[in-house]
Design goal:
The structure holds 2 protein chains of 2 kinds.
Chain A: H1 2-15, H2 26-37, H3 39-42, H4 58-64, H5 75-81, H6 100-111, H7 142-153, H8 164-176, H9 182-190, H10 196-206, H11 208-221, H12 239-250, H13 255-264, H14 273-278, H15 295-315, H16 334-342, H17 352-355, E1 367-370, H18 373-395, H19 398-421, E2 423-426, E3 437-438, E4 452-453, H20 471-478, H21 486-502, H22 523-535, H23 540-549, H24 551-554, H25 561-566, E5 579-580, H26 583-594, H27 649-653, H28 672-680, H29 682-698, H30 703-715, H31 721-740, H32 742-749, H33 762-776, E6 783-784
Antiparallel strand pairs in A: 1-2, 3-4, 5-6
Chain B: H1 3-16, H2 23-30, E1 48-54, H3 68-72, H4 80-83, E2 105-108, E3 113-116, H5 120-123, E4 129-136, H6 142-151, H7 161-169, E5 179-184, E6 210-211, H8 230-251, H9 254-277, H10 284-290, H11 299-311, E7 316-321, H12 330-354, E8 361-366, E9 370-376, E10 382-386, E11 390-396, E12 403-405, E13 407-408, E14 415-417, E15 420-421, H13 422-432, E16 441-444, E17 447-450
Parallel strand pairs in B: 1-7, 1-8, 4-12, 4-15, 5-6, 5-7
Antiparallel strand pairs in B: 2-3, 4-11, 8-11, 9-10, 13-14, 16-17
Helix pairs in contact in B: 8-9, 11-12
Classes of the chains: A mainly alpha, B alpha/beta.
């Protein structure tokens, strides 16, 4: 969401005073300016370079445009200050301009010698010394020293530690995506030992829900969905991949292995079923099963899709730009783009052009069948019976033949039924002859005039020594800290882990570590985290625990007026952040609070209630959505059927992405449509009824005790007097309303499939259901503080 | 609250809601003027857009582009000079032969514009519409072609033009979304339309199109739960807002104020939308004019709804009819689809005109592409997808009526004169709305993203008033 931050940068510029004299730093102050205002015409893209001037390379810039130490002699300064509109840079028709402060900054930089620095993201991180701070009481681990040092230099103070209830709610939402139960809250708040906090972090990291929460994020990155995406948006078989991701996080397999298994699970040594399922990563892209697609065109589209995703996920790079031209801001070339695509030229993806079709699910071989033990036994048994019957058939005469034939037919149809019910998943199978990959001039797939390319990593980043490098080589290169991009990958990933813990990355653009992305606010801290990640053996749980154990993480999230003024977007982390929980967690929280949540960590995707007719725009084939009528109805959001073209309206209302492209950071909107969803979606109405039933069954009978129960379950605290009054009024008004109209009470209680406790008074239950609706709609219920 | 605090809380609001604004819109947002004309580069001719999308790709050769030479060549091989090395859809590997026009054409209105007999009601509009006969696009399959028409690129994740327009201009309605989408039933086996087509992409999600459904809840989750009255719902929302406001006095979170406003708007929508979709206040002669049975999901009913939305200040109204993919049996399906859409389209323009609203409402008619001059025989005579030349029209809101812009070659294959790319259409639309497409950008992934992209695009000056 670069737009977010550029707007922020613009705003910040109004409050934060310009950098003091003598402090101009190329990476922080100058490169972003040059990149945004100049590089489009004077940067890496050779074909669109104007006046043969490039400013991104020091030697070229200093040939004649920049005279170090001599701003008055420098053509660059002359041109950006020229009064002549024909000479003035940037040209007026680009709608770019430089403010007088920015011109001063450039002038000062040249006066000070016009020192260039290598681009931060491509400089290998190294461990930096931990800065010394005066207040040695505050830091808990080395993260805190970096944070405190910067705060102190900006004249800011860190916030005090959050209260324990806030801490356990924060940790629970961050690590398992669910609110804590009142028992968990009580245990933690009553535990005075020094280890209480650490034990809580450990317990949550060990929870099976941890993998579900982490998968929510990873599945956005790799654009996992249950449907093909284009045109008919048919279902495809892939949900075992989702289960693999959940398990991988739960088992905390190292990130380098996780990388290898997804990119090259078919090629790794000892490739077993799990690795083959993981290789489904290469099949997650959107495909089209529209009649009349030209395979050659779509293979080009698929190749580009894979490059965009893989470069975004592992390198934080926007290589997509290079499909048609060399990158405008970063040193990626078109050749790099197509060479990266060539790694995936062996992925068997063309079969669906012949057998894909409009069936539901569609066929996208190669797929792996995953029969349960029961199904395997049954098939074995049926095969035996078929073989026997066929043997009999050979012996049979004309009279006995008929019934046996009938029997064989029946057995075979039984076998087909079992076969069809077997869970399948798309996997990667390497073609013996990889497709030829060419540079497509201007991205035009009809143009075969470009040179043929072999698999290769971006040229400026190095090379892989191999006859023909494979996906496995690429995966190893991504995670090789010595001869590969390992340290960049580590930086990209730890920045995202940091984001999960703070709501913003140390480098603000989680998917753009290029020149147009925001440089990290704490580059040294990001370096140290990246090195730590590699040194830990790519241990994700270790990194999360490290961050969460810090004092920085434990701060309260309320913003003090002075920090709000100085650092309105909390980029310096003088407090924690507060934000609405992700879409899936909004659902999960309601189910968990109401007691409806059904656990389970695998299986076909689930289908919650959905407005009738929502799929009416789908065709080939037309679609009828049937909501699950069993326990799958109450499983977590991460298991929901992800229909790319028509994502469940509840998920959409809370900003879950369609997963057509890599999403590293979801927006957090706050809209009337989201309000209508929480108010009226049957899932939440049913949850309110179940929640109310719990209140009546589990709390003491008084209204006060019941309100306590409601608040403690949903918000981990008791209500104050004002809150009691508001809810008591709501209760009594609704009670009298439903008393006068008991049918209405029955109708409200009829929402959802869960059976109703028939012993409770419907009027009372309906009135409490309304109170429960109020609680589930509170900002606090869906906010992580 | 002093001005600075006000500014700062807005800023926090922006960052929390994922709003990133172009600098132009930002300046007026800071003045607290979010809704009304946030951005205007020059005086606008049109205030709103109604986009009538004939999904599937109507044949230009049977609507607005008469090619007598193609009639002469009927049945003969299509000259390879046209087709060699060109993208092609279902006719891949098939013999390519010319298919003459399957319709009669006449000249209509004082302007004498050529329109086929499939569209008798359009004959009456000849002097109101500017026909563009030289459209080209870059995508030959439906789904990406719609994405291209709506966002200017085939790559997913970019904002639809309706989102762009609302982002730039804001909505004029305080209780309806600024971008409303409707699809119509009837016609051939309907085209799938992905919700990507009205997605806000990297713009804040409040700019995304909202579907107005003909059956069930007109907007998802609009109705109260069963057994809950409007006054109970009001009480509930009041309680939620009171509790949120109370909490906010302790935690001072600007996001809570936004949520309170969102709940208020949600409640207003619960009455404004039913009022909108209740057409019982429409007199019979209006219903007859459109041929509409209110709320039946037909194109006719949706055209009438489009007028009601326009009256209520909705900025961008996108209406899809999904029956235009005529690979075979073209004459029959043209009769059906034109039968369903021709008269209501006339009625919409005429009704807007009689209300004085056509002057500031821009209407755009067309599909995601056209159809081949070559024969396809998938169940009777038909035509395949075609992107190198096709027709659309624009009317109202600053567009000159009675003009024909551009032309295709003799066989209706390539647009050859005054070629209009999709991005030219976008540039023209934005121009009429008072927006200079070159200066209307949002930074995203390091680029200044524009609806019209980075290639040169131009405003079609000669169809402007």
């Amino acid at each position: 969401m670069r737009c977010v931050f550029s707007a922020i940068a613009l705003l910040t510029a109004l409050v934060v005073p310009p950098v003091d004299a003598g402090e101009v730093e190329f990476n922080r102050d100058i490169r972003p300016l040059l990149s945004d205002r100049c590089f489009a015409c004077h940067g890496p893209d050779e074909t669109h370079r104007e006046a043969d001037l490039r400013l991104d390379v020091e030697e070229a810039a200093k040939e004649w445009s920049i005279i170090a130490g001599e701003p008055d002699e420098s053509e660059l300064i002359a041109r950006i200050t020229s009064e002549d509109p024909d000479l003035r840079m940037p040209p007026a028709d680009t709608d770019k301009s430089l403010s007088s402060e920015e011109i001063d900054l450039l002038t000062q930089w040249i006066a000070e010698g016009a020192t260039y620095q290598p681009f931060w993201a491509y400089v290998a991180p190294q461990r930096h010394d931990v800065p010394s701070v005066d207040n040695t009481e505050w830091p808990i681990n080395w993260i805190d020293y970096f944070i405190l040092d910067r705060l102190t230099s900006e004249g800011l103070e860190p916030s005090s530690e959050a209260d324990r209830v806030t801490l356990i709610r924060r940790l629970s939402f961050d690590l398992v995506g669910l609110p804590p139960t009142p028992q968990e809250v009580a245990e933690f708040t009553e535990d005075d030992s020094d280890q209480a906090y650490e034990q809580l972090v450990d317990r949550l990291l060990d929870s099976p829900h941890y993998g579900e929460r982490m998968a929510m994020y990873w599945l956005d990155l790799v654009r996992y969905a249950d449907t093909v995406g284009y045109h008919g948006d048919q279902d495809h078989a892939i949900s075992p991949y989702r289960d693999y991701v959940i398990n991988a996080f739960n088992e905390n397999i190292s990130f380098d292995r996780f990388t290898r298994e997804q990119l090259a699970g078919d090629l790794v040594e000892g490739s077993g079923i799990e690795q083959k399922i993981a290789s489904g990563y290469n099949r997650l892209l959107q495909t089209s099963h529209e009649g009349g697609v030209q395979p050659k065109e779509y293979l080009a589209i698929y190749a580009a899709d894979r490059v965009r995703n893989v470069s975004s996920v592992w390198l934080g790079a926007t290589m997509g730009c290079c499909q048609c031209h060399d990158h405008k801001f970063d040193p990626f070339t078109m050749k790099d783009f197509y060479s990266m695509a060539a790694f995936f030229a062996d992925v068997d993806e063309a079969q669906h052009f012949k057998v894909g079709g409009n069936s539901l699910p569609t066929n996208r071989p190669p797929e792996l069948e995953l029969p349960t033990d029961e199904q395997s036994q049954l098939l074995e048994e049926l095969d035996k019976q078929i073989a026997e019957a066929e043997a009999q058939l050979k012996e049979a005469n004309d009279e006995t033949k008929g019934p046996i034939e009938e029997q064989v037919k029946e057995l075979k149809s039984k076998r087909d039924t079992v076969k069809r019910s077997i869970r399948r998943t798309m996997i990667t199978v390497a073609l013996e002859e990889p497709r030829t990959m060419r540079v497509l001039p201007r991205g035009n797939w009809l143009d075969d005039s470009g040179p043929i390319v072999e698999p290769a990593v971006p040229e400026f980043m190095g090379t892989i020594e191999a006859d023909r490098a494979t996906r496995l080589d690429l995966a190893n290169w991504f995670t090789d800290p010595d001869d590969g991009a390992g340290l960049l990958t580590a930086r990209v990933m730890v920045n995202r882990l940091w984001y999960l813990c703070f709501g913003s990355g140390l480098a603000g653009d989680l998917d753009d570590f290029g020149g147009q992305g925001e440089p990290p606010v704490h580059p040294e801290l990001l370096d140290n985290l990246a090195v730590e990640f590699v040194d830990s053996g790519w241990d994700i749980k270790h990194m999360l625990k490290l961050i969460m154990m810090s004092r920085t993480y434990r701060q309260q999230s309320l913003d003090a007026p002075e920090s709000r003024e100085h650092d309105p977007n909390n980029r310096l982390y003088a407090r924690q952040s507060r934000f609405r929980i992700p879409a899936e967690s909004v659902r999960d929280a309601a189910l968990s609070i109401s007691g409806l949540l059904v656990n389970g960590s695998s299986g076909e995707s689930i289908r919650p209630y959905q407005p009738a007719g929502y799929y009416r725009h789908l065709n080939f084939p037309t679609r009828t959505y049937t909501a699950d009528s069993d326990e799958r109805q109450w499983r977590r959001g991460v298991y929901m059927h992800w229909q790319r073209q028509f994502l469940h309206p509840m998920l959409k209302a809370f900003d879950a992405p369609s997963r057509e492209e890599c999403t590293a950071q979801r927006p957090r909107s706050n809209t009337p449509l989201a309000a209508l969803t929480l108010l009226n979606d049957p899932t939440f109405v049913e949850a309110s009824r179940a929640f109310a039933s719990r209140v009546l069954a589990e709390a003491e009978e008084s209204t006060d005790a019941r309100l306590d129960f409601l608040f403690e379950t949903a918000l981990s605290r008791t209500p104050d007097e004002t809150e009691r009054t508001v809810l008591t009024d709501l209760l009594s008004n609704n009670w009298s309303h439903f008393e006068q109209d008991p049918d209405a009470a029955e109708r409200l209680l009829g929402v959802g499939l869960t059976a109703r406790n028939e012993t409770t008074d419907p009027v009372e239950l309906a009135a409490w259901t309304t109170v429960a609706r109020a609680v589930l709609n509170l900002n606090e219920t869906i906010t992580r503080n | 609250m002093n001005d600075l605090t006000n500014l700062l809380s807005r800023r926090t609001f922006l960052s929390h809601t994922g709003v990133g604004l172009g600098s132009v819109a930002l300046s007026s947002l800071m003045q607290g003027n979010v809704q009304a004309d946030a951005l205007a580069h020059h005086a606008a001719k049109a205030k709103r857009v109604i986009f009538l999308c004939m999904a599937g790709g109507p044949s230009h050769l049977e609507t607005f582009d008469y090619r007598p030479k193609l009639a002469e060549m009927d049945g003969q091989p299509m000259p390879e000079s046209f087709t060699a090395g060109q993208p092609i859809a279902q006719l891949q590997g098939k013999e390519l032969k010319c298919q003459g026009p399957l319709a009669k054409f006449g000249r209509y209105g004082q302007s004498g514009q050529e329109i086929s007999d499939f569209l008798p009601w359009h004959h009456k509009l000849a002097d109101d519409i500017a026909i563009i006969r030289s459209m080209v696009t870059e995508q030959i399959n439906h789904d990406p072609a719609h994405t291209f028409m709506n966002t200017g690129t085939a790559i997913s994740g970019r904002p639809s033009m309706g989102s762009w327009v609302n982002y730039g201009l804001g909505s004029e309605s305080s209780d309806l979304p600024g971008f409303v989408v409707m699809t119509s039933v009837g016609g051939r086996n309907p085209q799938p339309i992905a919700s990507r087509q009205w997605d806000a992409g990297f713009l804040p999600s409040r700019y995304q199109g909202v579907e107005l459904n003909a059956s069930g809840d007109p907007v998802h989750y609009l109705s109260n739960p069963p057994g809950v009255t409007s006054s109970q719902q009001r009480q509930l929302i009041d309680a939620v807002n009171k509790l949120n406001a109370h909490r906010n006095s302790a935690v001072s979170n600007p996001e809570i104020n936004t949520r309170i406003a969102a709940y208020e708007m949600a409640f207003r929508m619960q009455s404004s939308v039913p009022e909108l979709v209740d057409m019982s206040d429409e007199p019979q002669y209006i219903l007859d004019m459109y041929g509409a049975v209110p709320g039946d999901g037909s194109y006719a009913s949706n055209c009438l709804m489009a007028r009601r939305l326009a009256e209520r200040g909705v900025r961008f109204i996108h209406l899809y009819h999904r029956g235009w993919d005529h690979h075979g049996d073209l004459v029959r399906y043209m009769n059906i689809c034109c039968g369903l859409t021709d008269k209501p389209t006339w009625a919409l323009l005429t009704d807007l005109k009689q209300r004085g609203m056509l002057d500031d409402t821009l209407i755009i008619w067309g599909g995601e592409f056209g159809r081949t001059p070559m024969f396809q025989g998938k169940g009777g005579i038909g035509r395949d997808h075609h992107i190198k030349g096709f027709s659309m029209w624009m009317a109202g809101g600053g567009v000159k009526g009675g003009v024909t812009h551009g032309s295709t070659d003799d066989l209706g294959y390539n647009a050859v004169e005054d070629v209009v790319h999709v991005r030219d259409l976008h540039a023209t639309m934005l121009h009429l709305l008072g927006i200079d497409h070159r200066r209307f950008s949002v930074p995203y992934q390091g680029l200044d993203m524009r609806l019209t992209g980075v290639e040169e695009s131009r405003v079609l000056q000669n169809i402007l008033v």
